[in-house]
Design brief:
- InterPro entries: Cytok_DH_C_sf, FAD-bd_oxidored_4_C, FAD-bd_PCMH, FAD-bd_PCMH-like_sf, FAD-bd_PCMH_sub1, FAD-bd_PCMH_sub2, FAD-linked_Oxase-like_C, Oxid_FAD_bind_N.
- GO terms for molecular function: D-lactate dehydrogenase (cytochrome) activity; D-lactate dehydrogenase (NAD+) activity; FAD binding.
- This is FAD-binding PCMH-type domain-containing protein.
- One of its GO terms (cellular component) is mitochondrion.
- 29% of the residues lie in helices and 15% in strands.
- By secondary structure, the chain is of the alpha+beta class.
- It has three domains: 159 residues, 2-Layer Sandwich (Uridine Diphospho-n-acetylenolpyruvylglucosamine Reductase, domain 2), CATH 3.30.43.10; 126 residues, Uridine Diphospho-n-acetylenolpyruvylglucosamine Reductase, domain 3 (2-Layer Sandwich), CATH 3.30.465; 243 residues, FAD-linked oxidases, C-terminal domain (Vanillyl-alcohol Oxidase, Chain A, domain 3), CATH 3.40.462.10.
- Helix 2 runs antiparallel to helix 3 and helix 7 crosses helix 12.
- The structure holds adenosine-5'-diphosphate (ADP).
């Protein structure tokens, strides 16, 4: 066994590395890296040996298949995963496995990684997979942390790391406010490019909490950002897709040769096919159009705190009409104080008393409130972060309404940003809501040594009763498993996601077991009450897909029909989002209950 040696290597930067940090965030990232490695005790386990071979092919044939792949794509662009699994950290993440795995780290693991340099290479890889019956799994950047990272669902899949060589910004159109990107373009990368072209003041990138993910990967997994353009899927326009049998299609206006509206009109003519390429395993996206937001001519962040847990219900009743009428303009966040304390980036041990020193004794509300009272924001239970857009007279109209409405909750406090130190979380939200990617969010992972996280993300209407029900459900189940509870509500337009992040020690089997059991109970109990997840981790995909079971699972059967028609040999990302192709079905690949093994019992024969 050895410990990771990367602790002292410099943080990769853009544009040298497509996955790097912009220079304006380098100091922040370097400091974060230090804190991550300071808390790390998990050793890297030796595994010098041949790669994991996926089911359905014998080792000898698999090694021949890899030689064939090397010949087609180039030997230097195929790397076999026969080395120790190094977890790295956010900016130096692995593409072979889930760096925050909740199972044994050998479960969701790739056998090899291939780096295509063009759409034609992607076609060759897909045809190769059909020839040898090897499962393949595309990633763009592989930073889908909390949902599986870069890991494939089927053990031994060959990961297609699209981003490393296909990372061009193919177009930025400052008149139409659109762009066309390849898979390896991150939010950081697009923002930097706007800067280089003198366009940062002109048009904004809608960025998630951290900007290191790719625009394509985040959008196809239906991620969100925090400007008024927050719903990334709704904001994309046009895809180029390699189908699982190797054909290329362009969707929307891209299907019309010579069209100059591919990024301006998403629908084209006929059925709107884009939908089947998000949260699915029906195709590999090699290009995507995205809309950018015009600079609104001014912006102003605001933050309010609320004292009591019970303020949640009346607050939601206030937020809903304001949000739907766009007085509250962006996907705003309502965060619980426990998460605010964790977001300070210190280990849990900094806050607890001796009575709760064990990881299986949750921190008490008293300890959390005592810690909150010492912060610049002061004690509270809920904090609302929002932004108002437009010139001052437009903003002041909206801000006055918000202020009057929020103050209907007794104890409501408006936080004056000038009273906050410059590294306060508020300023990170301020950047992100104004289209400036930041690097702050994952600090709460430091709560536990070797901190990993995994999310429970149910959708509900913006209503007091629903918010309270989901909050109580999460709280009770966390108490059942003795886990600290970090809830935050992200308010969309007519719905909200409750995002609960469970932070666990990746080197503590008991902690991981409790975290997974807690998640499984939350998914089932939420579904019983009518709430479903908007997105989920690889380990929960079968369970979550099962909750969308109306009419004897008719939607799942429809997805299977599409899967079998488009991917008859079931080679593309089998099992992703709970969709299994015909060669895998009926062989026990689904993961539900307390099962820890990700593999089923064999794979069926070739279909075509
Ligand atoms: P990010 O870019 O945010 O780091 P990932 O690259 O990890 O995200 O992608 C998130 C998920 O979306 C992946 O697990 C993969 O299943 C899917 N995905 C990513 N890129 C593509 C793509 N270009 N085509 C099809 N599916 C993709």
């Amino acid at each position: 066994m050895s410990f990771e040696t990367e602790a002292t290597t410099p943080v990769p930067i853009l544009p040298e590395a497509h996955s790097g940090i912009p220079s304006y965030l380098l100091a922040k990232a370097t400091k974060t890296k230090q804190t991550v490695f300071d808390g790390r005790t998990k050793p890297v386990r030796d595994r010098q040996r041949l790669p994991v071979v996926p089911q359905g092919i014998c080792r000898e044939d698999f090694l021949k298949a890899l030689d064939d792949l090397r010949q087609q794509i180039g030997g230097e662009y195929v790397s076999v995963n026969d080395r120790p699994l190094v977890d790295g950290w956010y900016m130096e993440h692995p593409n072979t496995h889930d760096m925050m795995t909740i199972l044994d780290e050998e479960e969701f693991v790739a056998s090899a990684v291939v780096y295509p340099g063009s759409t034609e290479d992607v076609q060759s890889i897909v045809r190769w997979a059909n020839k040898w019956l090897v499962p393949i799994f595309p990633i763009s950047m592989g930073r889908n942390l909390g949902y599986g990272g870069a890991a494939p669902r089927v053990r031994g899949s060959v990961t297609i790391d699209l981003g490393r060589r296909m990372n061009a910004i193919l177009d930025i159109n400052p008149e139409d406010y659109t762009c066309l990107v390849e898979p390896g373009v991150s939010f950081y990368g697009l923002y930097e490019e706007l800067g280089k072209r003198g366009l940062q003041e002109h048009m904004w990138v809608d960025t998630p909490d951290l900007g290191g993910g790719s625009i394509i990967g985040n959008t196809v997994d239906r991620g969100v950002g925090y400007t008024p353009y927050g719903d990334h899927w709704a904001c994309h326009s046009g895809l180029e897709v390699v189908l699982p049998t190797g054909e290329i299609i362009r969707t929307g206006m891209g299907a019309l040769p010579g069209s100059n509206t591919w990024q301006a009109f998403p629908y084209g003519f006929g059925p709107y096919s884009d939908g089947i390429f998000s949260q699915s395993n029906f195709g590999i996206v090699t290009k995507m159009g995205m809309t950018l937001m015009p600079n609104p001519g001014g912006h102003e962040s605001f933050m309010y705190t609320f004292q009591n847990e019970e303020d949640l219900a009346p607050l939601m009743e206030i937020i809903r009409p304001l949000r739907i009428s766009q007085i509250l303009e962006n996907v705003a966040q309502l965060r619980h104080v426990t998460q605010a304390i964790a977001a300070r980036g210190l280990p849990r041990t900094s806050f607890y008393s001796s009575s709760s020193s064990s990881p299986s004794v949750p921190i008490t509300p008293e300890e959390i409130h005592a810690a909150a009272a010492k912060t610049p924001v002061g004690d509270h239970t809920w904090a609302y972060y929002g932004m108002s857009y437009g010139p001052p007279h437009i903003r002041s109209y909206k801000l006055a309404i918000i202020d009057a409405e929020f103050h209907k909750i007794p104890g409501c406090k408006k936080i004056d940003p000038s009273t906050l130190p410059e590294d306060e979380y508020f300023f990170s939200r301020d950047n992100i809501a104004a289209g400036v990617p930041d690097f702050h969010e994952l600090r709460w992972c430091n709560w536990r040594p070797n901190g990993g996280h995994i999310a429970f993300s149910p959708v509900s209407p913006i209503r007091g009763a629903d918010a309270t029900k989901l909050f109580q459900l999460g709280k009770e189940i966390h108490e059942r498993y003795k886990i600290d509870f970090f809830p935050a509500f992200c308010v969309g337009l007519r719905e909200m996601h409750l995002i609960v992040e469970i932070v666990f020690d990746r080197d503590d089997a008991d902690e991981k077991k409790r975290a997974l059991a807690c998640l499984r109970d939350m998914v089932d109990e939420a579904a019983k009450q009518g709430y479903g997840e908007y997105r989920t981790h690889l380990v929960l995909m079968d369970q979550v897909a099962g909750t969308y079971g109306f009419n004897d699972g008719a939607l799942g059967k429809f997805n299977e029909k599409l899967k079998d028609a488009l991917d008859p040999n079931s080679i593309l990302a089998p099992g992703r989002c709970g969709i299994w192709g015909q060669r895998y079905r009926g062989r026990g690949w689904e993961m539900t209950g307390d099962r820890k093994k990700s593999e089923g019992d064999g794979v069926g024969p070739r279909v075509v």
